[in-house]
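Researcher: I'd like a candidate sequence for this fold, 43 residues long. If you have to choose between options at a position, lean toward the conservative one.
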């Protein structure tokens, strides 16, 4: 996966939340939620 920088050099901070709902996974076994959080932190 790659990305192109926005032409506007001024950065903007945004808040983000990851909400996953499962009756079979816990915080430590929720691999999809961990992946989403990890990808978000890269940006």
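Model: Candidate sequence:
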């Amino acid at each position: 996966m790659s990305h192109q920088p926005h032409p506007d050099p001024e950065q903007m901070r945004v808040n983000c939340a990851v909400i996953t709902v499962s009756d079979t996974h816990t915080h430590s076994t929720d691999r999809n939620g961990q992946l989403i959080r990890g990808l978000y932190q890269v940006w």
